[in-house]
C-alpha cells in the first residue's frame, strides 16, 4: 500500500470508470453471453508474477464487459433499480480507502456514531415515530440487504417469544405474510428454523391491488390460536417486488398489537419515496410496527449495499445476536456506554457504510432527493399512459410509485396463449440489447415489469423502450 | 451520475485517500475520543440543499478522523489485520463504479463466472482437494465474513440431517467445537436454532497449545450417541483467534467421517499462510472436511469484505438456501445451466467482490503474496525473540504464524495481580496512541496479542512497539 502508487493507479481507475459511464449506452443492457463464456478466456491458475494494470484493464474491457448486465444503464428497467451515484461512489471509495472494520464502537467510534446519526437523519426525513430514533431504546442500523434485515428481526422476535414460552415451543411458532411478500422472508424462516407448515402465506388478488386483507390475517391468527399455536410475526409490505402493493399497516398493526406479534415493515423499494410528503401516507400506521426497512441502495442514490433497518426495541436484537468473547472485550462496551453494531447483525465485521449515505445526503440534499424520486414517478406515469393508449396492451394493477406492470392483452380469452406471448415479448425485448425488463406473475398472468429508477434514465429512454416493446409486440401479434 | 463530475470528484477523492496514507503514522492508532463525541459535531438533521465536496472532506478530516481507529496503520497489531492494498482498493472502486448486482448468473454473468474461476485459482494455490473445485459438485463462493460462512454451512448440514431424520428432531442435533472456537460459531448456532445445551464446547489447554484433542471429541460424540442425540457438526480451527491454535484435522476428520458429521474448517486468518508450501501442513487432513473458509480480507491484501468459502457438496447449500420466486426466474437458471450464488448465501443481492481478489492475484502474483506472508511471519519471530529475551515477560503458547501471545510474568505466583498488571499494560500501551494491541485469556491468564499483518508494518514498527511496551511495563513494575 504505497500512497504514490495508490494515487497513480487510482487516477487511472477513476478515468476508466468515468469513460465507462460515457459509453454505457453502447452496451447491450442485458448481457448476451452464453453460460461458461469466461472459462476459456482466463488462465487455469493465478499468475506467479505481477501483471500490469493496463493488462488487467484491457481484460476488464474485452472479457468482463461482455458479461455485464448494465444495472446503471439508463435503459435498465428490470427488478428494482440499484442506484449508483457520484456521492455514493465517493463514499464507497473513502470507505475502501480508510479500510477500517467497525464491529465494536472502539474499533472506530466514528463509524458507529456516524451510522447512528445518519440513520436518525433519515428517520426524520421519513417522519418515523420517535421510538425508532437512537436516543431511546430504538435506533437504526445498516444491514447488507433486506434479506438480512428481515432475518435479524425474525430471530429477535423468535427469541423474545421463546424466552417467555420456553424454547421447546419453537415448533408452535407461526409467521404470517401475504403471497406477495419477497422470497427473502421465506428464506429467513428457513434459516431461523420456523417450520414450513407454520408459515401462513395469505392470498391476495386484484380486488385489493394485491394488498393483504386485515380480515384474512385476523382469521388466520384466530385459527392458529384455537389450534394452540403461537402467532408471533407478520412481515408486511410497502411496495411489493411484483407490483408495489401496499399492505394497510394501520389495520394490520391493530391485529399484531392485540396479539403481541412483531410487525416488520418491508419497504425495501418504496421506502425512498416516503421522504416526499405526498407519498408518506403509504407508511401511515408504521407507529405500530416493531421494525421498518428500506434499501438506500435501491432508489436513493446510495451504492449497494446499504439496507436501512430501524427497530423500536434494540434490546430484543442484541439479546438474540450478542456474543461477548474475551478477545473483543473493552472498557466502553463493558461499561455499556456505547452501541456495538456487531450485536445488531449476522456478521461480526462491517464496512464503514454510513459514509456513502452521509455523502449522498450532504452532496445532494433532501430537496434534490425528493425531486429525484418525483421525476422517476413522473416518467413511470408517462409510461403507464403510453401503455394505456395502445389497445394491444393493458396495465395490470394501478401504478403507485415508479413501477408499471403491463402485458399484451389476451386474444380469444386464451390466458395460456397470452402468457406465452408475453414471455416471448420479454425474450424479444431483452435480447434486442436495447433495454432490460423483468417479469412477474399476478393472479396467474405473466406480466412485464417496467421499473423506472436508474439514475441516468430520462424521458427519451422511456419512450425508446416503449417503441422497442411496440415493435416486438407488433411482430409477435401479426406473425 | 454525470461522468465528468465523477471524473473530477473521483480524482479529488483519490488524492484525499493517498494523502491519508502519507500521513497515517501521525494519528493515534486507537481512537482516543469519548463515547458520543460526534453527536455535537454534526447537525440534527440532513441538509435540504447540496453542500460542497470541500465542506464534506473538511468534515471527514476534522470530525471523522479523530474517531477512527487506524486499521491500516503500520502500528496496528490488534485482533487480526484487515488488509487494504492498492489492488484491493482498485477492485473495490471498479466494483462500486460498475454498480452491478450479481445475485443470479443472468444479472451479470461475469460476476458469477469470475468468482468461480478466482476461487478455483485460490483453491489450487492452497492445494485444496479437487472436490472443492467448481467443475464437480463443489465450488467456492465469496461470503461477507467468516460468520456468514459458518452460518450457511451449519444451515446446510442441519437441513441435510433433518431431511433424513425428520425435522422434529432439531432438538436432538448436537454440534462440537473447542473452547477456542470463534464466537461466530456460537452465534451461528443461536441463529440456526441449535439448542444451547446441545453445543459441546470441548476444553483445551496448554498441553496441546490449545488445539482440540481428538479423544475428547470421540468421547463426547459417543456419549451423545448413547443418549440418543444426533452429532452432526464439528467446527474445527486452523489458527484460532486467541492464539492461532491448529486443531489436528486428520484425526478429527476420521471421527466426523465415521459418524457422518459435517466437518467445517475455520482458517479465517491462517488460511492465507497455507499458500506457502512450508505452511501447507497446517491444513493437512482438509481432505476429510466438507467446507473450508479463509478470509482474503484479513491477511491476503484484499479489502474487506471478502471471505472465501469452499464446499464439496454445493447441493446441500442450495437445498437449504434456495428460493425461486417468479420474478427471478430466467431461462439459464431454469435450465440448470448456471450457478446462482444467491442460493449459496443469506442475502439476495451481492456486490462484484471477485474483482478485487482477481486484481490482487494479478497485480501482485502468487510469489509476491507468499513473500508477503513470510515477511510478516519473520517479523513475528523477531518480536517473539525480543519478548523471550526480557525476563519481565513471557511468551504464552508457541508462535506458529504471525501472532505472538505474551504477558508480563507474575510475581509471587499471584495470577490475579498479574492479570491486572497486564490489563494495565494494555491500557497504557493503547492510550499512548503509538500502537494498538488487543488481548485474550488463555487458561485464565490475561495475555497481550501482537498480531502482525498490516500491509505497511516494517521491522522498525515492531521494534518501536516493543520499546513502548517495555517502557510502560517498566513503569508498572517499578511504581
TrEMBL record, chains A, B:
Swiss-Prot/TrEMBL keywords: Decarboxylase, Lyase, Pyridoxal phosphate
Cofactors named for this entry: pyridoxal 5'-phosphate
Assigned GO CC terms: cytoplasm
GO-annotated biological processes: amino acid metabolic process; carboxylic acid metabolic process
GO MF, one annotated term: carboxy-lyase activity
Positions where N6-(pyridoxal phosphate)lysine occurs in the chain: 298
InterPro entries: Aromatic_deC (IPR010977), PyrdxlP-dep_de-COase (IPR002129), PyrdxlP-dep_Trfase (IPR015424), PyrdxlP-dep_Trfase_major (IPR015421), PyrdxlP-dep_Trfase_small (IPR015422), Pyridoxal-P_BS (IPR021115)
Pfam families associated with the record: Pyridoxal_deC
Gene3D superfamilies named in the record: Aspartate Aminotransferase, domain 1, dopa decarboxylase, N-terminal domain, Type I PLP-dependent aspartate aminotransferase-like (Major domain)
Recorded family membership: Belongs to the group II decarboxylase family.
Protein name: Tyrosine decarboxylase
Organism of derivation: Microthlaspi erraticum
Amino acid at each position: 500500500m504505497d500512497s504514490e502508487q495508490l494515487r497513480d493507479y487510482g487516477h487511472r481507475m477513476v478515468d476508466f470508470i468515468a469513460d465507462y459511464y460515457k459509453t454505457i449506452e453502447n452496451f447491450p443492457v442485458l448481457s448476451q453471453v452464453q453460460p461458461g463464456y469466461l472459462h476459456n478466456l482466463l488462465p487455469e491458475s493465478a499468475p506467479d508474477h505481477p501483471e500490469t494494470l493496463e493488462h488487467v484493464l484491457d481484460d476488464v474491457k474485452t472479457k468482463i464487459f461482455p458479461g455485464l448486465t448494465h444495472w446503471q444503464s439508463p435503459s435498465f428497467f428490470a427488478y428494482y433499480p440499484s442506484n449508483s451515484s457520484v456521492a455514493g461512489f465517493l463514499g464507497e471509495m473513502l470507505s475502501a480507502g480508510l479500510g477500517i472494520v467497525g464491529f465494536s464502537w472502539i474499533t472506530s467510534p466514528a463509524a458507529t456514531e456516524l451510522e447512528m446519526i445518519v440513520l436518525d437523519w433519515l428517520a426524520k426525513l421519513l417522519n418515523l415515530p420517535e421510538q425508532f430514533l437512537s436516543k431511546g431504546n430504538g435506533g437504526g442500523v445498516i444491514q447488507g440487504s433486506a434479506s438480512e434485515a428481515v432475518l435479524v428481526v425474525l430471530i429477535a422476535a423468535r427469541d423474545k417469544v421463546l424466552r417467555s414460552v420456553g424454547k421447546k415451543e419453537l415448533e408452535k411458532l407461526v409467521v404470517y405474510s401475504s403471497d406477495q411478500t419477497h422470497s427473502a422472508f421465506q428464506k429467513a424462516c428457513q434459516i431461523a428454523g420456523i417450520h414450513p407448515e407454520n408459515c401462513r402465506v395469505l392470498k391476495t388478488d386484484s380486488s385489493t391491488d394485491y394488498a393483504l386483507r386485515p380480515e384474512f390475517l385476523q382469521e388466520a391468527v384466530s385459527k392458529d390460536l384455537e389450534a394452540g399455536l403461537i402467532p408471533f410475526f407478520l412481515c408486511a409490505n410497502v411496495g411489493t417486488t411484483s407490483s408495489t402493493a401496499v399492505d394497510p399497516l394501520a389495520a394490520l398493526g391493530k391485529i399484531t398489537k392485540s396479539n403481541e406479534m412483531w410487525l416488520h415493515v418491508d419497504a425495501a423499494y418504496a421506502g425512498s419515496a416516503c421522504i416526499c410528503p405526498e407519498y408518506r401516507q403509504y407508511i401511515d400506521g408504521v407507529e405500530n410496527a416493531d421494525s421498518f426497512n428500506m434499501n438506500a441502495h435501491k432508489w436513493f442514490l446510495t451504492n449497494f449495499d446499504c439496507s436501512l433497518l430501524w427497530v423500536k426495541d434494540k434490546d430484543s436484537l442484541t439479546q438474540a445476536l450478542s456474543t461477548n468473547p474475551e478477545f473483543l472485550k473493552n472498557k466502553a462496551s463493558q461499561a455499556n456506554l456505547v452501541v456495538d453494531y456487531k450485536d445488531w447483525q449476522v456478521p461480526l465485521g462491517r464496512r464503514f457504510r454510513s459514509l456513502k449515505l452521509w455523502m449522498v445526503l450532504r452532496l445532494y440534499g433532501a430537496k434534490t432527493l425528493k425531486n429525484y424520486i418525483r421525476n422517476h414517478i413522473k416518467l413511470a406515469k408517462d409510461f403507464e399512459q403510453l401503455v394505456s393508449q395502445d389497445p394491444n396492451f393493458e396495465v395490470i394493477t394501478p401504478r403507485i410509485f415508479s413501477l408499471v406492470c403491463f402485458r399484451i392483452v389476451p386474444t380469444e380469452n386464451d390466458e395460456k396463449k397470452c402468457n406465452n406471448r408475453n414471455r416471448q415479448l420479454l425474450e424479444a425485448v431483452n435480447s434486442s440489447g436495447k433495454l432490460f425488463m423483468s417479469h412477474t406473475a399476478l393472479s396467474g398472468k405473466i406480466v412485464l415489469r417496467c421499473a423506472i429508477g436508474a439514475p441516468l434514465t430520462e424521458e427519451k429512454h422511456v419512450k425508446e423502450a416503449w417503441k422497442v416493446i411496440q415493435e416486438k409486440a407488433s411482430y409477435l401479434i401479426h406473425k
